[in-house]
């Protein structure tokens, strides 16, 4: 079976090479049939990569330990679902998933657009083919998932912290996001190569960017939730290089999603958009490089492997090639119009872009700092939480405010007086909220107070937009279904506000540690926790030790929680099992961690964190997905507009 | 005809300059970063550093009542330094693991800051095949 997988990958490699070279040849000489053949090669590559994936999946499910990959990442004790998730639990499988997703995206994007914009697609095919060739090459020559060995009796099992339902969704979603950014990148470069720098590539890839961006966003939030409930340190984001690796392309793609609207509507910022999509795609490659090469210290460090230099080389080629292409096509990328006023929708988009990119680059600087300082000073130095938090406040708070201002400012030209009139209500709401918050004692954190005041402002301006629109359109449903993109966007804005509320809540949290004997209590953030007893349970996979803790608020017992640890037998690992009591009424969590437990004396060292408003993050995630779906949902009216637009561009 | 002044350029230039100014000021005044060192590089560093390396020998203490005491060795080398630590001990902490901890060298002992010990996830797990006893906590 391993031979079949290997053969399928070699076929894929051949097909994507054909797509690259025949495609470029065909596009250069305008050979229609050869171009079709190159595009079909991409579709066929999806099928052959699919076959390779099925072979690997089959081996994982059957526990065929003659596959080195299977033996290294599963064991017969592993549940079926986690045997499947081991597909992306290791490096070779992850690369295969990457290639599979890439071929899937490429095939679908080419199929959907080859009739509409044949000249652009003809050049997009070789770009997609080149990216796929790189991954196919890695899988064939450097990191094959189909290496075989004499089958051992038992496999090594999967890292216990990966034996988690989140493992089924979080990595594939991140891959959908990372890889999805290839589509707009390839269409952008395809448009440049074809010498067609009109707006068609943006219109054709808007949904693809949105899909990738949504998947990346939801994937990261799932990761944050996973870290929060499972890893057991009571936090959800630690500015770890691997987390930042997913955040950076998301920030760049967010900037891109906004700035393409200006190009669509006003024909401006063409060079900027090309640079942004290059940045987003380059960062998604850089993220993979970071996680796979071991060049920076991360608590996530995966297998340190030989593919790091390949990735670095590929990133350099992509960035240098794309920059050269953009430079070569600069004359085509002249703006048709210019910014008319600093108080206009375009201008707010511009400010938003500058802030997002500035934040993205400061994160990049922080991630690269150990490497840079080692090169310059001879010793690696690490920038930690305070650095990132400073820039999150410096750039994030103005961004939050802009989210409330932007939608209310008119396109092209507006006056300060007009803007002032529009903002009466949101401003009044935010002032009232600010005063109430200061009275409630939220002034202990200036950044937190600002974040909440701005949040109130943004939410009020979104509500105002909905109310106005509904009045004009007659009904809310009518309004949203006729302008899905716009109102979906507002819902996403509301979700970002919820995220901001959740994140800013950490400024008001409290933490306490205590050593308790059964019967003793501790107080933290208005709660009284009483430790009752310690008990062990044995399951097939692990010994589970739990402390029973009563949680009380103002004298009334509200919950009993069971923090503890699991000792996994096969993997010889312990894992912390934090207990969470969620007080929905106060929108806060009480996280109880049993740090050390002594079964002889019953002594337990507890760490308790009260985290106000943390649940807004998860609610925000659901709203985010909902808003994105509204914006993504197919719209017949928009399709008709698109067709007209294509016709116009081609004439 | 004279080219009309484009307000966008002015704004972009000013914003970029502003962002750069904040960035440079902050990075030069506040964020110098913490050096990441291994035991052999420790000599001559009196300030706060992140010390990384492999745990060797048998750790003693629990990190709460009594300080957790262990020795860190260079990842590829022989230099070692004793470490004294208090706070949460990660699940994966044990002899042979790659760990990192923040603190400073005081009189030949690396005194760690509270709750700064992290272990790097080992890339592969090689369980002992016949042992059925769960490991201790």
Give a written overview of the molecule.
The complex is a heterodimer of chains A (651) and B (137). By secondary structure, chain A is an alpha+beta fold. Chain A has 21 helices and eleven strands. In chain A, the strands form two sheets. In chain A, strands 3, 4, 5, 6, 7 and 8 form a six-stranded antiparallel sheet that branches. Chain A has a four-stranded antiparallel sheet with strand order 2-11-10-9, with no helix packed on it. In chain A, a hairpin with a 4-residue loop joins β9 (579-583) and β10. Chain A is globular, with a radius of gyration of 27 Å. Chain B is an alpha+beta fold and 137 residues long. Chain B has a domain at 36-119: Nucleic acid-binding proteins (OB fold (Dihydrolipoamide Acetyltransferase, E2P), Beta Barrel), CATH 2.40.50. Helix content of chain B is 17%, strand content 31%. Chain B contains one helix and seven strands; from the N terminus they run αβββββββ. Chain B has a five-stranded mixed beta barrel. The radius of gyration of chain B is 23 Å and the shape is elongated. Residues 122-137 of chain B have low confidence and may be disordered. The chains are: A alpha+beta (651), B alpha+beta (137). Chains A and B meet through α13, β1, α14, β5 and β7 of A and α1, β1 and β7 of B.
């Amino acid at each position: 079976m391993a031979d079949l997988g290997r053969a399928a990958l070699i076929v894929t490699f051949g097909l994507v090479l054909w797509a690259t070279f025949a495609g470029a040849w065909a596009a250069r000489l305008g050979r229609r049939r050869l171009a079709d053949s190159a595009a079909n090669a991409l579709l066929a590559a999806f099928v052959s990569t699919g076959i390779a994936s099925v072979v690997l999946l089959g081996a994982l499910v059957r526990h065929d330990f003659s596959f080195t990959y299977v033996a290294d990442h599963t064991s017969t004790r592993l549940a079926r679902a986690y045997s499947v998730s081991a597909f992306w639990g290791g490096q070779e499988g992850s690369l295969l998933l990457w290639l599979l997703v890439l071929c899937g995206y490429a095939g679908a994007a080419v199929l959907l657009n080859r009739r509409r914009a044949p000249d652009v697609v003809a050049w997009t095919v070789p770009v997609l083919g080149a990216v796929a060739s790189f991954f196919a090459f890695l899988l064939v020559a450097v990191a094959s998932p189909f290496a075989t060995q004499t089958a051992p009796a038992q496999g090594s099992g999967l890292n216990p912290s990966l034996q988690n339902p989140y493992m089924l969704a979080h990595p594939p979603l991140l891959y959908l996001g990372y890889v999805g950014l290839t589509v707009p990148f390839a269409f952008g470069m395809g448009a440049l190569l074809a010498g067609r720098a009109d707006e068609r590539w943006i219109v054709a890839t808007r949904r693809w960017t949105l899909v990738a961006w949504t998947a990346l966003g939801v994937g990261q939030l799932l990761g944050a939730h996973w870290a929060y409930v499972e890893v057991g340190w009571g936090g959800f984001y630690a500015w770890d290089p691997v987390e930042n690796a997913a955040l950076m392309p998301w920030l760049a793609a967010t900037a891109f999603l906004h700035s393409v609207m200006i190009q669509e509507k006003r024909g401006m910022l063409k060079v900027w958009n090309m640079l942004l999509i290059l940045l987003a795609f380059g960062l998604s490659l850089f993220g993979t490089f970071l996680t796979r090469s071991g060049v920076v210290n991360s608590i996530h460090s995966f297998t340190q492997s030989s593919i790091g230099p390949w990735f670095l080389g590929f990133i350099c080629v992509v960035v240098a090639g794309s920059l050269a292409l953009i430079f070569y096509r600069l004359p085509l990328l002249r703006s048709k119009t210019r910014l008319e006023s600093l108080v206009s929708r375009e201008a707010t988009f511009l400010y938003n872009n500058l802030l997002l990119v500035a934040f993205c680059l400061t994160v990049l600087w922080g991630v690269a700092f150990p490497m840079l300082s080692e090169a310059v000073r001879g010793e690696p130095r690490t920038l930690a939480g305070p650095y990132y938090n400073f820039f999150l406040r410096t750039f994030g708070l103005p961004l939050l405010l802009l989210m409330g201002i932007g939608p209310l400012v008119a396109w092209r030209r507006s006056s300060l007086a007009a803007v002032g009139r529009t903002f009466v209500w949101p401003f009044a709401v935010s002032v009232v909220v600010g005063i109430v918050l200061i009275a409630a004692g939220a002034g202990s954190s200036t950044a937190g107070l600002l974040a909440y005041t701005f949040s109130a402002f943004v939410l009020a301006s979104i509500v105002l937009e909905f109310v106005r629109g509904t009045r004009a359109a007659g009904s809310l449903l009518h309004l949203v279904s006729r302008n899905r993109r716009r109102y979906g966007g507002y819902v996403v804005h509301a979700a970002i506000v919820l995220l901001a509320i959740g994140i800013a809540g950490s400024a008001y949290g409290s933490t306490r540690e205590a050593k308790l004997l059964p019967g003793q209590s501790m107080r933290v953030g208005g709660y009284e926790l009483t430790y009752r007893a310690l008990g062990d349970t044995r399951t097939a996979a692990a010994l589970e030790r739990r402390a029973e803790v009563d949680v009380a608020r103002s004298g009334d017992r509200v919950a009993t929680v069971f923090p503890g640890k699991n000792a996994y037998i096969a993997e010889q690992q312990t894992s912390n099992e934090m207990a969470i009591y969620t007080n929905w009424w106060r929108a806060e969590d009480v996280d109880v961690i049993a740090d050390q437990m002594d079964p002889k004396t019953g002594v337990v060292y507890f760490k308790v964190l009260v985290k106000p408003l943390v649940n807004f993050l998860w609610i925000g995630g659901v709203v985010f997905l909902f808003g994105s779906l509204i914006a993504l949902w197919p719209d017949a009216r928009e399709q008709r507009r698109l067709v007209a637009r294509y016709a116009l561009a081609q004439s | 005809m004279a080219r009309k002044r484009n307000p966008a350029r002015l704004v972009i230039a000013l914003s970029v300059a502003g962002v750069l100014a904040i960035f440079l000021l902050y990075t030069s005044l506040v964020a110098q970063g913490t050096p990441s060192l291994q035991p052999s590089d420790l000599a001559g560093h009196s300030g706060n550093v992140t010390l990384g390396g492999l745990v060797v020998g048998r750790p003693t203490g629990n990190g709460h009542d009594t300080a957790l005491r262990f020795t860190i060795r260079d990842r590829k080398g022989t230099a070692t330094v004793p470490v004294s630590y208090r706070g949460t001990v990660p699940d994966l902490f044990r002899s042979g693991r790659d760990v990192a901890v923040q603190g400073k060298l005081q009189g030949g002992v690396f005194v760690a800051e509270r709750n700064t010990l992290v272990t790097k996830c080992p890339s592969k797990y090689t369980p002992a095949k016949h042992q059925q006893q769960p490991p201790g906590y």
